[in-house]
Design a protein that fits this description.
52% of the residues lie in helices and 12% in strands. By secondary structure, it is of the alpha/beta class. Among the domains are: 262 residues, no CATH class; 259 residues, 3-Layer(aba) Sandwich (Rossmann fold), CATH 3.40.50.300; 273 residues, no CATH class; 81 residues, Alpha-Beta Plaits (2-Layer Sandwich), CATH 3.30.70. β1 and β2 form a beta hairpin. It starts with a helix and ends in a 27-residue tail after the last helix.
């Protein structure tokens, strides 16, 4: 099987997995099945035609079906067409397409797979329509086979049309809105040509370039009617409506021919537009490229890359140099090496090549790092005996005036991990995008195996794997299905796929999760799956972008072990913000700054060149001596600064410890200073050597200062003047919150092209409806004028006009209004659903936003938008002097004004049934049109005569549930004043009604809106209720609690306890099968004023659930939660006025700028006027966001997190909650954020709860920490006390001398002589043990000063070791110690257990 066929098949299988999951097949069949039912119900049967008028409920329906069939026929595929367009554009938007192309998927196979999938799915939908249309008995052109052929061609042309439209969009929502409008408008062209001015055949053929118009003309060509009346028409005008309207005639054969033309026009248009329209990752070609000779010569005569028999495949190279075979199946489509790499197995040639390489690069003998006063030579390459895989020469990428990558040169060798480091915006991600061919370079060369990337990109990509920073996974596919998909992309034969997938699963440790859907995997396992996908097919070069982002310490170390294992057979390019990760894994590090390579070398060399010195930490030994330590803190601080020359106080010191930076040059002063400090018996001492992160920060700060910037970590940065409002407490203001919600909806609409178009496009559709209706009605009135002339009885004609013509006019207009505003509903339903999905609504609630101002502020702006659209429509009608509407402009204005309120409120209610904004966006307009209007309308028609009692019941239900049908009734009775209350004629198409005037229906519309708004507010109060059920909970087995945990329980439950944040014995149980899951088991803790509490734990331990219960995201099962000494068991928002929250996900409106976010959250907190302006300006400057004037969607990940923190801090709430606040920040930005939090804590003594996976962050920020395991605290105490109590001694970390023959035995012997009870901790970790030895020393009789003297003077001074550190056990050591007791987390626990209302929409929630 060729690679193209296999890849195409793989894409098809992946697409059909989507349709087979989440009931997507059922969703796609809704519209065609409804349409088929409509066709069947409205069919013209012989029995119906023979019934008398009074007994025939179908005649009017039959007539209207014939008229409206050109609208319904193309619309049968509307739902699938919109879904296809959104899904295809979403592949670009979410980087599925580009990631798969990097893995080796060709554009030809990708497109073919999508086309074939669409043909099959659309064919199934089309079959339903064809059968229902043909067997319903409508007058059509041709036999069943002709209809089937025409409709099948229409389906293919429509698919090609959708793909052509997709090239204009990178936003799936915008594509969906404009695409559905375009398709709807195209179907109306039939009415324009038929009932408008007669057009030429040329114009007709051009109109038929729209398949939606062509299919109606080819199948439903209206038959020309004679001006003479049929014999039955005088007595049966209702049934003759469709024959009474004389339409223009066109040749349906032209339409059929144009359908075939459309098939080729749109697919060629797709290929053309793909080349000239730029996307996020590529550049466009000239629109005239098809007229250039080079294009045609390349297309017709370009020679493919020829394989030569004397080339050696990369697999052979690996096996020859490794001396061992690859663990995975050989890829059948691995690129062959270029001429400069052939015959590489020959040792003499290989040695000659290496010699030549070394001779050509004299920098191999130069130092790896530039000195502080010299420039770095960009061509430095660390000597490496392995073959060269990637050679990057002077690589550049410019985005207009921004030089994202500016002259980078580097090399990657076999079996090497190369780490790219740099602050946010340094150019790391752009560099990887260039190396993978994702974007086009501005200059330079990229050579893989000696071959140019651009010339051989498809074959080179067969050897590449990538793990993006964001997991690019399909929620509806399992672990195995993901790996099988990539195996198919890589071209692995079907008989080898199973073994390949099993090998990968074993390698990344996903044996227990292999059958789980991606959406049910934990964050750590998702990263493992992404890594596994990068390894499939024996990929020799792996790109890893933040592979451990968001993982806890245990999961992160698991990934490290995997990477260390696979390094033996692969080469890896790694980017990370975890510097300890780079330090442990990388063979070589490149630090980038402003698009340039600043430093290159091994981590040890970099630290040696730029090291800041040692870190000294002093802390109290126990809780009993905390006060003594606090009393002596200032004296001890000054003593260290005076005793050690050049020492600096570390501003990152927490409340219960003192930290210093001690320079290398003053090391001789250390021993005596430590000896004097140890005389203070209440002090613990720790000394650690500088880390790579310290070096990175130092380099970054020096780089910023050299460029004219400031040291953002300097102590004097926080001493600026503060607004007086910063010290005030937040307060509730209805008007301020109303204004904030109105303002945010304004920005979300006015900057969203999709929303703007959805405001304007329905106006165009309604005006087109007026035009078509006018001509349609004109023809109908001419018909009744002929009745007058034939019978001479004008009274009979006038009665018919009153009972049929005017209601029919309003009915026809209503159809276009309903269709226009059903499309428009997406802009009203989208924002509330989106805010609930992205947790913005949760953040607003917890920070004090009340339901009433939230919904009224949103409604006020949405209604303003609606009113503007209606006003434009209204003025257009008046200006155009539409005669049949002019007498009724006043009631029309009142009816439509009230309808807007009901429609918007209806959208809010329906939004409750959606948990996903994409689903709401895709499906709600279709639901609004078909479920809320079309189906009820047909049911009313059917039951009008056949079941009068049911008909009356249905009318009452529509008054309550359907704004569209109530609008129809109101418009149909808009002439009630003219009728002067006369009873309906028996032949009146309005039938028996509840009300006979528009005023009553208008009141019904208003009542609808009020009921909808009340329902929304009631539901929200219940949804965000904090009231716990206080259920009985299972009793755990008695176990001895940790001393610190028991002390905390006693402290919290004491009668005089006044902690601002307090949790007492809280539980959370999730219903599950076969047994309920107890996620949190009796957690108790309190946070004092001015204290930061660290809530820690491995994945599945219950910390997220605990955090959610405290912040009202998840209702508790049992227990008490107190905020500011008030029990929040009651359902009241008053407790949230003085709270700030920073959720893990960025709760930001994508179209709002930083300043606008702070303005809105400030207003929510009650700030106004000058106070608001000063506070917003302060936080913009303080969080370094003043210079960013762009929308939040364009901010970097780090700046988004800083903005979320600023939103939390606005108005200085006394209670603050942070969930992973520093995720995605580079080390400098992270340190600055920590500094900001500490500074603000000093200004206003807030109580803070922090969850984090960065244990260094917890150590630097938290005063007290608790580690949860299996829903319970295993330890909880002051941080320094916890380390002293749980650390069980000291750790001595010895860095070995870098010599070919390591001296572990000698070092072990000397250490054991000094400390007989010393235990080696890392002997089983071979890689670590080769570089360093970590000893655990019991604290009994241990003197820090003696240990330092021994290591410094006896070992380091005599060059037995290179360096050392003496520390207490770190928080990470304690965390890992307890994490081993964590049970496998259940993936069945939902994010929260708030249930949505049950309804017919429930299956759409996903």
């Amino acid at each position: 099987m060729s690679l193209f066929i296999q890849q195409t098949k793989t894409v098809i299988i992946k697409n059909f997995l989507f349709y087979s999951s989440k009931k997507e097949i059922i969703k796609e069949l809704i519209v065609p099945l409804i349409s088929a039912w409509v066709f069947y119900v409205g069919r013209p049967t012989q029995q119906q035609q023979q019934q008398d008028d009074d007994e025939n409920p179908f005649k009017f329906m039959n007539s209207m079906m014939n008229l409206m069939l050109p609208l319904y026929l193309p619309g049968t595929i509307t739902g699938y067409a919109k879904k296809l367009l959104i899904n295809y554009v979403n592949e670009k938007h979410e980087r599925y397409k580009e990631t798969q192309k990097i893995m080796g998927l060709t554009q030809r196979a990708y497109l073919s797979g999508w086309l074939i999938t669409s043909y099959l799915a659309m064919g199934f939908i089309g079959l339903i329509t064809i059968l229902s249309l043909y067997f319903s008995g409508y007058e059509v052109n041709g036999s069943f086979s002709v209809i089937a052929i025409n409709y099948s061609v229409y389906l293919i042309a429509s698919i090609h049309q959708i793909f052509a439209i997709s090239t204009f969009f990178s936003s799936p929502k915008l594509a969906g809105e404009i695409g559905i409008f375009f398709l709807s408008m195209a179907s109306l062209l039939f009415f324009y040509l038929t009932y408008g001015t007669k057009s030429s055949d040329t114009t007709f053929a051009l109109i038929c370039l729209f398949p939606q118009a062509a299919i109606s003309f080819s199948i439903l060509q209206p038959q020309y009617q004679s001006p003479q009346l049929s014999s039955g028409s005088q007595n049966d005008p209702v049934s003759d409506i469709s024959q009474s309207v004389q339409g223009n005639q066109y040749n349906y054969k032209i339409a059929s021919f144009m359908l075939f033309v459309d098939v080729f026009v749109y697919i060629l248009l797709y290929f053309y537009l793909e080349e000239i329209i730029p996307n996020e990752y590529g550049l466009k070609r000239s629109p005239f490229f098809i007229f250039k000779k080079k294009f045609w010569s390349d297309l017709l005569f370009k020679k493919t890359f020829k394989q030569k028999s004397n080339y050696v495949q990369f697999d052979d190279q690996v096996n020859d140099n490794d001396g061992q075979s690859n663990n995975h199946m050989n890829n059948q489509h691995v690129i062959e090496l270029g001429n400069d790499m052939k015959n590489i197995q020959n040792e003499s040639l290989l040695g000659e090549k290496k010699k030549k390489l070394n001779n050509s690069n004299t920098l191999n003998q130069q130092p790896s790092l530039f000195t502080k006063n010299s420039n770095l030579n960009q061509n430095y390459v660390e000597p490496n005996q392995n073959p060269l895989l990637i050679d990057v020469i002077d690589l550049k990428k410019h985005f207009k005036s921004v030089h994202a990558v500016d002259g980078i040169s580097m090399k990657l060798f076999q079996n090497e991990i190369l780490c790219l480091l740099g602050h946010n915006g340094a150019g790391k991600t752009t560099t990887i995008s260039l190396l993978t061919g994702l974007i086009e370079k501005t200059g330079g060369k990229i050579l893989y195996f000696g071959e140019d990337l651009e010339e051989n990109i498809d074959k080179i990509r067969q050897n590449l794997g990538i793990c993006n920073q964001k997991d690019v996974l399909y929620n509806y596919m399992t672990v195995i299905q993901h790996l099988e998909f990539i195996a198919g992309v890589k071209g692995i034969s079907s008989d080898q796929v199973k073994q390949e997938v099993q090998n990968i699963i074993n390698e990344v440790g996903l044996q227990n999760e292999k059958d789980k859907l991606a959406e049910n995997l934990s964050g750590g396992n998702k990263r493992k799956l992404s890594l596994g996908m990068a390894l499939v097919g024996g990929s020799k070069i792996i790109y890893l972008d933040e592979p451990t982002s968001g993982m806890d310490a245990v999961s992160r170390q698991q990934i490290w072990k995997i990477l260390e294992q696979i390094k033996d057979t692969r080469s890896i390019v790694l980017t990370t913000h975890h510097l300890e990760e780079a330090e442990r894994l990388s063979d070589r590090i490149i630090i980038m700054s402003k698009g340039k390579k600043k430093i290159e070398g091994h981590s040890d060399e970099i630290k040696r060149e730029y090291g800041v010195g040692y870190h000294l930490t002093l802390s109290p030994k126990s809780n009993e001596v905390k006060q003594q330590f606090e009393d002596r803190k200032q004296y001890i601080k000054q003593f260290v600064l005076d005793s050690i020359t050049g020492s600096e106080y570390n501003v990152q010191s927490s409340r219960d410890c003192i930290k210093f930076i001690l320079p290398f040059k003053s090391i001789d002063q250390f021993s005596q200073t430590f000896q004097l400090i140890e005389q203070e018996e209440f002090i613990n001492i720790s000394l650690s050597i500088n880390s790579l992160e310290d070096v990175f920060i130092k380099i970054g700060i020096e780089d910023e200062i050299s460029a004219g910037g400031l040291n953002i970590l300097a102590n004097d940065q926080s001493q600026n003047s503060h607004p007086s409002a910063l010290y005030n407490s937040p307060k509730y203001s209805f008007f301020s919150q109303f204004q904030a919600m109105f303002q945010r909806q304004y920005y979300m609409t006015i900057r969203n092209w999709s929303a703007i178009l959805m405001i304007l496009l329905p106006i165009a559709e309604m005006l087109l409806g007026v035009y078509i209706a006018k001509h349609f009605i004109d023809n109908l009135e001419k018909y009744f004028d002929m009745i007058d002339e034939a019978t001479g009885d004008k009274n009979q004609s006038q009665q018919i006009k009153n009972s049929i013509v005017f209601p029919l006019k309003m009915y026809f207009l209503n159809i276009f209004i309903v269709q226009a505003y059903s499309i428009n509903t997406s802009i009203y339903v989208n924002t509330p659903v989106l805010e609930r999905e992205t947790q913005i609504k949760y953040a607003l609630n917890i920070m004090g936003c009340r339901p009433l101002p939230y919904w009224l502020g949103t409604l006020a702006f949405d209604y303003t938008v609606y009113f503007i659209t209606f006003l434009i429509y209204y003025i257009s009608i008046y200006s155009a002097r539409v005669e049949f509407l002019i007498p009724y402009l006043t009631p029309l204005f009142i009816i439509m004004s009230c309808f807007g309120f009901s429609l918007i409120a209806f959208c809010y209610v329906c939004g409750i049934f959606f948990q996903n904004s994409n689903s709401a966006f895709k499906y709600f307009p279709i639901i609004a049109l078909f479920v809320n209007y079309t189906i009820p309308s047909l049911l009313l028609m059917i039951t009008r005569f056949s079941s009068p009692d049911l008909y009356q019941v249905l009318q009452f239900l529509t008054l309550l549930l359907s704004p569209f049908l109530t609008l129809e009734k109101a418009l149909a009775n808009i002439d009630s004043q003219k009728r002067m209350g006369q009873a309906m004629q028996s032949a009146d198409i309005r039938g028996s009604q509840i009300f006979n005037n528009w005023q009553h229906y208008t009141i019904a519309i208003i009542v609808q809106g009020i009921l909808y708004m009340i329902g929304v507010i009631i539901y929200e109060r219940k949804y965000y209720s904090l009231a716990g059920s206080n259920q009985n909970v299972p009793q755990d087995l008695e176990e001895q609690l940790d001393e610190g945990v028991q002390d905390e329980i006693n402290r919290v439950q004491a009668a005089n306890n006044s902690d601002p944040i307090k949790c007492d014995q809280i539980y959370k149980i999730y219903p599950s099968s076969p047994a309920d899951i107890c996620a949190v088991r009796g957690t108790t803790f309190g946070v004092e004023k001015g204290q930061i509490f660290g809530l820690l734990g491995p994945n599945g331990a219950g910390k997220t659930t605990t955090f959610g219960m405290i912040t009202a995201s998840i209702p508790k099962t049992r227990g008490q939660i107190y905020l500011n000494n008030k029990n929040i068991n009651e359902n009241s928002n008053i407790y949230f006025d003085n709270i700030g929250v920073c959720p893990q996900n960025n709760c930001l409106w994508e179209y709002l700028k930083a300043k606008e976010h702070l303005n809105i959250f400030g207003r929510v907190k009650g700030l106004n006027g000058k106070d608001l302006k000063e506070v917003v300006g302060y936080y913009l400057k303080y969080m370094q966001l003043s210079h960013y004037k762009v929308q939040s969607s364009k901010l970097s990940g780090g700046n988004k997190r800083k903005l979320c923190v600023a939103n939390c801090l606005i108005a200085s709430p006394s209670l603050q909650f942070y969930d992973e606040p520093s995720t995605g920040l580079d080390p400098i930005a992270k340190r600055y954020l920590w500094k900001c939090l500490k500074d603000i804590l000093q200004k206003k003594e807030s109580s803070i709860v922090l969850t984090t996976h960065s244990l260094q962050e917890a150590e630097d920020l938290c005063d007290k920490v608790g580690i949860q395991v299996n829903g319970k605290f295993k330890c909880l105490d002051n941080l320094q006390i916890l380390k002293s109590r749980k650390g069980q001694g000291y750790k001595i970390n010895v860095k070995l001398i870098d010599t070919p023959q390591k001296n572990q035995e000698q070092v072990n012997r000397l250490i054991k002589q000094q400390y007989p009870d010393a235990e080696i901790l890392n002997q089983q970790d071979i890689k670590s043990y080769e570089e360093r030895i970590i000893y655990k020393i019991p604290s009994q009789n241990f003197l820090f000063s003696e240990a330092f003297y021994f290591l410094q003077n006896n070992l380091k001074h005599n060059k037995i070791i290179e360096d050392f550190s003496i520390t207490q056990a770190s928080l990470e050591d304690i965390f890992i110690q307890y994490s081993q007791y964590q049970n496998e987390p259940s993936n069945q626990i939902p994010n929260n257990n708030r249930s949505s209302c049950c309804s017919i929409f429930s299956f759409l929630r996903r």
